[in-house]
Every structure is written in C-alpha cells, then in structure tokens.
C-alpha cells in the first residue's frame, strides 16, 4: 500500500499524513476547503521540530523529503482516484463519517481499502455506508503518533481476514506497533483505558472538586506520569471531547462540553496545535 489518502487534516489527520510520508508513502491530504488546505504547510513546519526532538533518525533533509511526498486537495474524487488505502479522520460524528464514506465509495477504485480512525464509533456502526464491507475496518492512532506509535487494527464482522492483516502490516510499514484488536470494542484498547481517566478529570473540574492544575499535579505526582489528564486533552484538542460530550445523556459531560465551548473553543484555544488550551504553549 504505497498510495495513501487521508481524509481530514486536523490534529490527528495531519499527523497520519506526515508520518505516512515520513515513512516513504505517497500521500494525498484531503479536506473540505481550499482555505484549510492552504494552512497545511504551516502544520508541517510545526511537526518538523517535534520529529527532530523525539526521533534519533530524523534529519532536516528527511523531513523535507516527507513534505515533498504530500499532495493536498479539496477535491474528494481526485483525492481517492489512485488510493491503495483511504484513512478517514473526519470529526467524530456518525452522520459525518457515514456521509463521507458514501461519497468515497462512489469515487474510489475497486482496489482501495477503507479504514476509519474513529476513536469511539465502531466500524460496524459505519459499514453500511460503504460499498465494500469486506475491505472496511478501523485503524486507530494515538496522538503524537511519531512517538506514541500504536496502530490499533479492528475489524467488523464482514472484514476479510486477509485485509485485516494487510492493514496491520501497513501500520508497521509507517512505524507503528500494530495492535491487533481481537473483537470490536468501543475505544479499542488505548481509549478503553484512557477515556475513564479523562472523564473522571472532567467530572472533578465541572463539579468544583479541584481546579485543572491541581488535578494534573495530583495525577503526575501520585503515578509518576509525565502529564496529567488536562495536558492530555490539550494534545487531543478541544473539538474531540466537545463533539463527544455536547449531546451526551450525562449532564456532567454536557456541561463539560459547554464549558469547553464558551471558555476555550469560542476564543480559539483549541489545545497544543493552536498554542493555547487549558495551558499556554510556546512556538
């Protein structure tokens, strides 16, 4: 799978694009508008120093070569025309994902394998929107994928086992440790462990039990973890927890989403990627 198309250029989508190109793949980056596409070169410049910081084999020449293997477009048919694999990283809403996959199904060649990077939705929730269920599954990445390099591969009932294994091998080719998830699980392995922590942190803050800094300090000090839950949320970005919580049946999750919107999102504080979230970050 040499020809890779990534749908969505947000925090995680842009990382998947860059990591795939860094690993030698030819990558098409798709998003819905030329205005979004025009901002991608700035994103690559933000990622380069992180690779230099964290990866011993990273060099300026290698990073420039990665950028040269990325082509961006807002034309969906053009984006998927020669794709060996399409990885979808659009907002975490079932209606958006289903609509996206219906359009991709109509445009992609028969050879193309479809993978969703959905964090909480199951591939079986989405599969009826695709025209090739045997070639549809989930491939989920953790944030900062160049160093938190897990690629969780999860099938649905109709996925061809051979396709499952091909995607696991692809994950390894782009520098991931392939995590073969044996059955469908909301949140895969990593988020099944992580989300309860983040939910507990949000609950403590919303109910006024402790402030953000104290919650993070407590977690770091008591467990030896390098970052606390709100620092993790800054890496994830505000939009994912907002989209997950705004229509929740849980009133605390809804209030958390509303506070994210009014206190952070509406002010442009979206997390590390924008230089400010719960905390401020330098360039």
In short:
The chain is α/β, with parallel strands linked by helices and 283 residues long.
Structural account:
- The protein is of the alpha/beta class and 283 residues long.
- The protein is built from 13 helices and 8 strands.
- It has 2 domains: 3-181, Rossmann fold (3-Layer(aba) Sandwich), CATH 3.40.50.720; 192-274, N-(1-d-carboxylethyl)-l-norvaline Dehydrogenase, domain 2 (Orthogonal Bundle).
- 47% of the residues lie in helices and 14% in strands.
- Strand 7 (150-155), helix 8 (161-173) and strand 8 (177-181) form a beta-alpha-beta unit.
- The protein is globular and about 55 Å long.
- Belongs to the 3-hydroxyacyl-CoA dehydrogenase family.
List descriptors:
283 residues; alpha/beta; Rossmann fold; N-(1-d-carboxylethyl)-l-norvaline Dehydrogenase, domain 2; 13 helices
Distance between the termini: 35 Å
- CATH topology term of the largest domain: Rossmann fold
Give the overall shape: globular
In total, the number of domains comes to: 2
**What would you call the structural class?**
alpha/beta
Query: Radius of gyration, rounded?
Result: 19 Å
Elements, N to C (H/E): EHEHHHEHEHEHEEHEHHHHH
> Which architecture of the largest domain does the CATH hierarchy give at level 2?
3-Layer(aba) Sandwich
How much helicity do the residues have? Answer: 40-55%
Low-confidence stretches: none
- Per DSSP, what share of the residues sits in E-state strands of 2 or more residues? 5-15%
Instruction: Identify the CATH class of the largest domain.
Output: Alpha Beta
The quaternary organization reads as: single chain
Largest sheet: 8 strands, mixed
Q: Total helix count? A: 13
- Provide the residue-averaged pLDDT: 96
């Amino acid at each position: 799978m040499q020809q890779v198309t990534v749908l969505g250029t947000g925090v995680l989508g842009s990382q998947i694009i860059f990591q795939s190109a860094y690993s030698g793949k030819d990558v098409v980056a798709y998003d819905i508008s030329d205005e979004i596409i025009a901002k991608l070169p700035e994103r690559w410049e933000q990622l380069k120093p992180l690779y230099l910081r964290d990866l011993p084999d990273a060099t300026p020449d290698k990073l420039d070569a990665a950028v040269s293997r990325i082509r961006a477009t807002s034309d969906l048919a053009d984006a998927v025309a020669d794709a060996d694999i399409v990885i979808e990283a659009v907002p975490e809403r079932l209606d958006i994902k289903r609509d996206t996959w219906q359009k991709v199904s109509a445009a992609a060649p028969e050879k193309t394998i479809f993978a969703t990077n959905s964090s909480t939705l199951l591939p079986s929730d989405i599969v009826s929107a695709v025209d090739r269920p045997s070639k549809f599954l989930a491939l989920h990445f953790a944030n900062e994928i160049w160093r938190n390099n897990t690629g969780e591969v999860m099938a649905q009932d109709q996925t061809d086992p051979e396709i499952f294994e091909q995607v696991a091998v692809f994950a390894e080719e782009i520098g991931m440790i392939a995590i073969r998830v044996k059955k469908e699980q909301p949140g895969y392995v990593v988020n099944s462990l992580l989300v309860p922590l983040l939910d507990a942190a949000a609950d403590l803050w919303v109910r006024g039990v402790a402030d953000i800094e104290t919650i993070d300090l407590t977690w770091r000090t008591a467990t030896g973890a390098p970052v606390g839950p709100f620092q993790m949320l800054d890496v994830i970005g505000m939009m994912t927890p907002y989209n997950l919580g705004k229509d929740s049946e849980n009133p605390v999750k809804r209030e958390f989403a509303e506070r994210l919107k009014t206190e952070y999102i509406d002010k442009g504080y979206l997390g590390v990627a924008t230089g400010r979230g719960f905390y401020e970050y330098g360039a």
